[in-house]
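hey team, just a heads up i'm posting the complex here instead of the shared drive bc the drive is being weird again. everything in one block, sequence lines first with there labels, then the predicted structure for the whole assembly after. its two chains so it's a bit long, scroll down
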Amino acid sequence: MTVTTAPAPRNQTPGKPGTPGKKPGKSRTPGEGRMAAMLLSPTLLVLALVIVYPLISAIHQSLFRAESGLDADGFVTEGEAFVGLANYADLFVGESGRRFLNAFGNTTFFTVSTVLLETVLGLCLALAMNRAFRGRSFLRASILVPWAVPTAVSGLLWRWIFQSDGIANTMLGSEILWTAEGTASKLAVIIAEVWKTAPFIGLLVLAGMQIIPEEVYEAAKIDGAGWWRQLGSITLPLVKPTLLVAVLFRMLDALRMFDLPFVLIGPGKESVETLSMLAWDESNQLRYGSASAFAVVLFLYVAVVAIVFVKVLGTDVTGANRLRPVKNRQKRKATRSQKAEATR
Amino acid sequence: MTISELRSLATDSGTRGGKRTADRQNAGAPLPTKKKRTWRSYSVYAGLVLIFAYCLAPFYWMIVSSLRRTADIFDNTLLPAPFSLENYVKVFDGSTMFGQALLNSLIVAGTTTVFALVLGVFAAYAISRLNFRFKSVILGVIIATSMFPGISVVVPLLRFFTDLGWINTYQAMIIPNLSFAIPLAVWNLTTFMKQLPFDLEEAAMIDGCTKWQAFRKVLLPLAAPGVFTTAILTFIHSWNEFIIALSMINDPKIQTATVAISKFTGATEFQAPFGEQMAAGVIVTVPLVIMVLIFQRRIVEGLTAGAGK
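-- predicted structure starts here --
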């Protein structure tokens, strides 16, 4: 039995035919827009409250600075002064500027290194899983375990593994202070992050691999293409759209990294402090002005990366461009299962 | 046709995927010489073992460590030498309020999931079934919000909630949680509903159902598996949430489990209670792992909904 998505004319309720002159399926009845507005408004309202309002508020707060100083009469005054873009100007000078640039560098470094490693490892995982015939479901379950472990818990877990007399040092025969400051702690964060997220990329890429029609490989084999050639000329190009989406999501997630360094190494450690941690620390010190400035900068950073991916690399996040391929694929699936039934 | 028949029809595509891969393995695998095949299968098995070890070894180490006594917590044996539940007893002995933290996590994650699902179902229905202007713009905006960094929500809302006196309340966690839960729910449900055939609702409407009735009596029962998958994913995300709970709450009575275990401290500053931390970590993780094992097929479908389909 097959489900075909026939391009049936929509909205042909009796007595209310679609507006004539328009393409079928694109016709709008006046009630429909109102209904859509009604159904969407609660969601948009909540998103306005939890996304738009904070964003505007952050931009607003970033223009102020809490000032508790002595006024002319020697009294302690507490208040907020409008400082314009001073909080942003401070990002590049002085002690706070050094801290910001360090956090910015750490965030970028972690994002690039972890996403790169995750992608390579995730691809390998997907290739292995695509090959695995037996134990596939068991494999899938085990690969979901790192994904399901809460980041805070995985931070604790790796903190334990990376103890000075913990299992990592025992196995390596080394005496590295992983969870103190320095390069080792950066490495610890990268290892823990990659462990948790590479399986996620692997799952997404595997899903992309499984929709590549087998005929393509057969044709390649007939033409004499070896495994590497098939990988480079078929698998990777066809998996690329999926991989781009996965990499985009991982990058945006890595840019806001907070829990893992916070729990694994601790707050306020220079070598692993990310922008999120810096902003959190500032707001903890009640310096909302600079905290907001950091938050705004991080938001802009994330937005730029997202825009680059969507506009330049053509990552199809919403799946809008994929609507047509989905239909074709369903048809293909249908014919194939019919074939399978016929041969059975 | 009964609803259950329709549902099996709608989920048929999932099972067909499995069949398809089986087909492919039969058809696609060349028939190499026997020697080659054994070598190949060995390498495949070696790869599998590697993947299992990679995924499970750290988790296994957490479980093993949690079952050791405090005295031999630094042992490196693969099995706990004297098996002991000491750490689990300590976790619940009341001084850390871990039981309360688990309950808080359940309340916060559960409420977040319910809100996100209710709003998400309506929004997803509108996006997948109705024709209106700016549809793709709205979907794009909703998805874009899911990329919003948590700290950019936390800093301004922290101040706002302080003014409202909401610090140390559940709503101070639940409302910011919606900032990631709603986009997740809307997106998952939209992709799922788009896959359901429109013909059934149409038939119902021709038979005299209103749009609302068609939605409630035809689409919603058909979409139940998708709603369920979305619920699991949203719940897991909210359960794992850290930065919001850490910032909005400083009262141990309201803390969620993830924050509570990150704050476990021992008697001395230099000796963290690793045994207890591991035990607490196992307790926080095990419900999720069980969920994952039971619903793995659904979860994978949900995770890959946007990317692969």
